[in-house]
Every structure is written in structure tokens, then in C-alpha cells.
Specification:
This protein is an alpha/beta fold. Helix content is about 60%, strand content about 10%. It has a five-stranded mixed beta sheet. α3 packs across α4, α3 packs antiparallel against α5 and α7 packs across α8. The longest helix is centred in the N-terminal third of the chain and has 36 residues.
Amino acid sequence: MADFIRTLQTGYHALTESGQFLMLFMTALLFLWFLRGFEKKEFRRLATVMLLLLLCPVSIKLLLLYQTGFYGYENLWALLPMTALLACAAVMAVFKITAIYISERRKLRKAVSAKREHAAEVFAVFLMALLLFFCGTMEMAKSETGQDLNGDKLPEEVAEVLQLVEIPQEEGVFLLAPDEVAAWARIYSGKILLPYGRNLWEPVLSAYTYDVYMGDMWELHNWVNGTLATGSDGEEALREEEMVLSRCASAGYDYLVFSAERNNEEGLRLAMENQKEYVYFAQTEGYVIYKLQ
């Protein structure tokens, strides 16, 4: 059962992190391929136009200015054809919905005025625009707590943890910690390095970028926060804990921080006793800190 759950999680991450555009692209491709009135020669024309745009210096310059500055020329080869074909499929879908709507109206009433046909087209376009709108980020902001969140004062329990971390003067130090600690680490010191940013667990922060985190980063995040699904069998759960700990040591994470509840879990406690890479370093009321030897 645990293997089945992990398989589903892997598939979910592949879809939501790195496969969403490709999935939509393939869906649009199949839609246009089997759509009546859309012939194969139109695919050839689309491919020719894409190739010319991606090889012409003038169009390349304009496209690079249009896209996010973080990305380069190579990204155009993936994003431009997908965007163009998705837009084409969306337009064809609007026409198809409009035609079906008008056809059904004509069956009910023999005479449909031009105004009503035009109103049907406007209504179909409105529905598609509404659907596109709801594809964006519609997440409500998290409610603030009584803690001081103005950026110049850390929550007391977080400050206690970060003050214990030994930060070299010339080099940075790698920290892996739960969300509530990691969210303040870079504010406390720019020399504290993190495996991932808070835009991993707060998707609204990266809603309009192409950046995505791979499945191993999500697994690491869920593991340190205690939300990673592990095997029901004790030995299997222990083996999984040891594997992630070994990955952390190989990646050079200097400090591991766990909540007191997470640290008391049997699987993690036994894994810490069996491994030799990390040693107990310090503890606060709510967190336990381990240091890489």
C-alpha cells in the first residue's frame, strides 16, 4: 500500500511540477488532430511558422524581450510551440462550443436571429475567458497570527533556534528546517543557505514563473516537516528515514532541525541512532538541532 501511495505521489509531482504544460500541449494536439475541419496541412503550417520565428534574429530578439528575463533562448523552443498550439486549440474550442450552442438553439426554434447568434458567440467567449481566469492563482492569503511579522523581529521560538546555529564569517552554512523556521532563516542571516525557498510551500509566491521544484525537493520538504508518507512496516519506515538522512549528509546540509514532536517519532529516532553523519547539537523548547560531523 505504501508503494502504491508513493507511486501516486511521484505521478502527481511529475504532473504538477514539470509536466503540466506538456500534458495540456498533448491534449490540445489530440483535440486539433481529430477535430473536423482542421487538416494536417495546418499542422505543417504551424510548424513552419514556429521554425521561422525561432530562427529569425528579429523575432528571436522580440520574443526574448517578451519572455521572463531569467530564461534564455533555449526555453523558447519549448514554450513558444506549446503556447501557440494551446492558443489555437482554445480558439477552435470556442468556435466549436458556439456552433454546438447555435445548432441546439435552432433545433428548439426554427428561426434564430443574428443578434441571438452573436450573443451566443459572446457568451461562449465569456465562458472560455472565465475558465482561463480560474486557472490562475485563486488562493486566499493566510491569516496572520499574533506574532510580529513585520520582518524586523523574529518569532521568539524561531530566534532561539537560529541563534544556536554557528555561522562562519566567510562561508555560508546549509540549514534544513521546518517551514516555520526556514521562513525566517534568510531574514536572520543571509549566510544561512536553504535547499529550497518558501515559494515551494507557498505556491502563490511563484504563481507567475516557470520555476518548479522537482520531486526530490518536495520529498525532502515533507520529510523534515513530518508529512512524508512512509511505509506501514517498521523496518521499511526506518530504511526510508535512513535513506533521506544519507541524502542530507551527501548534499552537505550542515544542520538539521526537527520539531520536538517529529524528533520523538520512532522511525526518525532509530535512524538517528543508527547513522554516524549527524550528532545531537542543541535543543530548545520546541525544536531539536543536529549537526553534520
